[in-house]
C-alpha cells in the first residue's frame, strides 16, 4: 500500500503542472476567506451610499443593513421586541412615581423663571408692573400644585403610552435617522458570529479546494478552474451563513476526544488527554449563544433604542403628539384655571391672550419636561431598572424567535452575498488559471 502511494506521488511529481495543482487548496482557502470578508463588510458598510446616480439609476453600493434600516428594524420589532414586552410594561418598570419626583425637583427649581419667561413674552409691561405680592401668590400656588400635577401627568402618560407611541414607528424612525446606530447594534450583538463566518470560510475553502484538486485529475480542463471557483464561492457564502442560524435546536453527537482546548497566556492550545467519548451539540453558532447575546442585546436596547428619552420624544413630538398635548393641557389647566390665577390673568391679559398664554404654557412645559428626560445619567438609571426584565425575556424566547434578532440583517438581499461569492470566486479562479496553469 505504501509502495503504491509512493508510486502515485512520484507520478504526480513528474507532472509539469504539479505546483499549479498543489496551489489549488491554499488559493481556494485564501480566496474564500477574502471574498467572505468582503461580503460581510458589504452587509454593514458603507453606511451612506457610495457611488453615482446615472439619472434615476444608482450605480454604487450601500450596506444592506443601513440601506434597509427601516424594513429590518420593523421586522425585528414585529418578530421580537413586541413579544418581549409592551411600552407600558417598560415605563411601569422604570418606576413612574420616582420619575415624577425627579422631574418635578428639576422643574420646580426653574418654575418661577418659566412663569416669568412666558409672561414677559405675552405682556412684558403688565408683568413688570404687577405687584410683587400677586406674583408671589402665583409662584406659591404653582409650587404647591406642581408635585401632584407632575405625578398625575406622568402616571397619565404611562397609562396611555400605547395610544401615544407606536413602538414599531418609534424604532423604525430612530433607525432610519441613525443608521450608524443600527449597524453598531448588529455588530455588538453578532460580532462573534461574523468572525465565525469569516474564519470558518477558510476551512470550507480548504475542503472545496481538495475536491477541486481531485476533479482536476479526472477532468484536467483549464476552464474548470474558474468554473469550480465560482461554484465554491457560491456554496461557501451560503454554507457559512446557514451555519450561524442552523440547526435551530441542539443535536448531540458522540465523538472520541483525544485533545482538549486550554488557554495559555490568553491563546487557545490543544493538549492531549486520555481518550474518551465526548458529546458535541451541533447547533447554529448564534443560537448557541442565546444567554450571552441576551445580555448584549438587552444592554443595547435599554441604553440606546427603547429609552425614556426615545419614548418621551416620540410621545411629545411623534405622530400622536396632539393626543399628548391634550393630556398635558388637562393637567396644566389644574393650575391656570384656579380662581386666583384665572381671575388675575384674565383681568390683566384679556380672555383671548389668556387662552394663548395657556397654549404657551403647554409648549414650554413639554420643552422643559424633556430637559431632565434627556439627561444621560437619568436615562441610565431607568435603563438599569428594565435591563434584567429585558434580558430574562430574551433568554426565554424560542430559538425560532431568538434568531430574528440577527437573521433579518443577513436575510435581506442575501442572494446578493451568495452571487457575490460566485462572481469573486470566478474572477479569482480566472487569475489563478493564468498565473499558475498557463
Automatic annotation (TrEMBL):
Protein name: DUF445 domain-containing protein
Originating species: Acinetobacter boissieri
Transmembrane segments: 20-40, 196-219, 225-245, 415-437
Keywords: Membrane, Transmembrane, Transmembrane helix
Superkingdom of this protein's organism: Bacteria
Keyword Transcription regulation attributed: no
Presence of keyword Transmembrane: yes
Amino acid at each position: 500500500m505504501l509502495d503504491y502511494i509512493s508510486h502515485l506521488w512520484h507520478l504526480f511529481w513528474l507532472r509539469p503542472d504539479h505546483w499549479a495543482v498543489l496551489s489549488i487548496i491554499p488559493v481556494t482557502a485564501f480566496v474564500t476567506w477574502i471574498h467572505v470578508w468582503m461580503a460581510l463588510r458589504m452587509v454593514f458598510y458603507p453606511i451612506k451610499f457610495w457611488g453615482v446616480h446615472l439619472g434615476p439609476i444608482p450605480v454604487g453600493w450601500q450596506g444592506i443593513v443601513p440601506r434597509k434600516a427601516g424594513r429590518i428594524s420593523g421586522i425585528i420589532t414585529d418578530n421580537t421586541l413586541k413579544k418581549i414586552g409592551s411600552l407600558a410594561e417598560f415605563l411601569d418598570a422604570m418606576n413612574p412615581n420616582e420619575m415624577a419626583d425627579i422631574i418635578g425637583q428639576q422643574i420646580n427649581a426653574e418654575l418661577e423663571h418659566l412663569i416669568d419667561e412666558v409672561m414677559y413674552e405675552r405682556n412684558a409691561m403688565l408683568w413688570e408692573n404687577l405687584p410683587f405680592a400677586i406674583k408671589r401668590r402665583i409662584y406659591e400656588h404653582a409650587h404647591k400644585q406642581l408635585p401632584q400635577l407632575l405625578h398625575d401627568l406622568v402616571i397619565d402618560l404611562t397609562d396611555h403610552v400605547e395610544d401615544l407611541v407606536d413602538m414599531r414607528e418609534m424604532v423604525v424612525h430612530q433607525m432610519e435617522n441613525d443608521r450608524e446606530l443600527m449597524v453598531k447594534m448588529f455588530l455588538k450583538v453578532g460580532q462573534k458570529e461574523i468572525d465565525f463566518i469569516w474564519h470558518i470560510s477558510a476551512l470550507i475553502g480548504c475542503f472545496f479546494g481538495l475536491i477541486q484538486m481531485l476533479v482536476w485529475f479526472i477532468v484536467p480542463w483549464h476552464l474548470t478552474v474558474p468554473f469550480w471557483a465560482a461554484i465554491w464561492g457560491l456554496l461557501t457564502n451560503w454554507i457559512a451563513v446557514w451555519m450561524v442560524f442552523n440547526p435551530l435546536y441542539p443535536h448531540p453527537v458522540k465523538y472520541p476526544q483525544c485533545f482538549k482546548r486550554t488557554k495559555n497566556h490568553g491563546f487557545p492550545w490543544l493538549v492531549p488527554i486520555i481518550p474518551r467519548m465526548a458529546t458535541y451539540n451541533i447547533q447554529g453558532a448564534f443560537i448557541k449563544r442565546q444567554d450571552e447575546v441576551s445580555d448584549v442585546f438587552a444592554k443595547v436596547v435599554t441604553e440606546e433604542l427603547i429609552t425614556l428619552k426615545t419614548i418621551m420624544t416620540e410621545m411629545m413630538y411623534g405622530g400622536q403628539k396632539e393626543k399628548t398635548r391634550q393630556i398635558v393641557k388637562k393637567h396644566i389647566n389644574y393650575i391656570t384655571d384656579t380662581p386666583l390665577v384665572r381671575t388675575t390673568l384674565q383681568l390683566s391679559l384679556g380672555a383671548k391672550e389668556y387662552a394663548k398664554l395657556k397654549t404657551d404654557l403647554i409648549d414650554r412645559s413639554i420643552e422643559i419636561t424633556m430637559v431632565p428626560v434627556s439627561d444621560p445619567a437619568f436615562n441610565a438609571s431607568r435603563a438599569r431598572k428594565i435591563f434584567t426584565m429585558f434580558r430574562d425575556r430574551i433568554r426565554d424566547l424560542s430559538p425560532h424567535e431568538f434568531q430574528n434578532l440577527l437573521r433579518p440583517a443577513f436575510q435581506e438581499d442575501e442572494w446578493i452575498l451568495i452571487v457575490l461569492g460566485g462572481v469573486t470566486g470566478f474572477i479569482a479562479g480566472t487569475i489563478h488559471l493564468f498565473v499558475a496553469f498557463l
